[in-house]
Write a structure and sequence with these properties.
The chain has one domain: Glutaredoxin (3-Layer(aba) Sandwich), CATH 3.40.30. The protein has six helices and four strands, in the order βαβααααββα. The chain is 39% helix and 12% strand. The chain has a four-stranded mixed sheet with strand order 2-1-3-4, sandwiched between helices. The two termini are 17 Å apart.
């Protein structure tokens, strides 16, 4: 599997993460989360691989999340419905995402991403 970096180009955290990847010589395929939103199949695979609750995949600070009142709605949805929702709009997905062979990184925390270059 090729490393995939999924970002929203105008996101300051994504810009910082991409700069960090480039400075550390990490090769990756770059994807725009809005124009190339992850599919339901990709999300199912990555969520399983991440071993994290689906809730961690939502951009809870995003406008779309708040507009849709997802804080109230998500607890009443099943996993399939949550994955369909994430796949319907890239702005609902927490970013950036870095998909490597054996690990998924959600959001950018340099101290955690250091594992990428090991």
């Amino acid at each position: 599997m090729k490393n995939i970096f999924i970002e929203y180009p105008k996101c300051s955290t994504c810009i910082k993460a991409k700069k960090w990847l480039n400075e550390n010589g990490v090769e990756f395929e770059d994807r725009n989360i809005v124009t190339e939103t992850p599919t339901q199949e990709e999300l199912k695979e990555w969520i399983k691989m991440s071993k994290k609750d689906i809730k961690k995949w939502f951009n809870t600070s995003g406008l779309k999340y708040k507009e849709l009142n997802l804080k109230e709605k998500l607890p009443n949805m099943n996993d399939e419905e949550k994955i369909q929702l994430l796949a319907s709009d890239g702005m609902l997905i927490k970013r950036p995402l870095f998909i490597a062979d054996r690990e998924i990184y959600i959001g950018f925390k340099e101290e955690i991403w250091k594992d990428i270059i090991k």
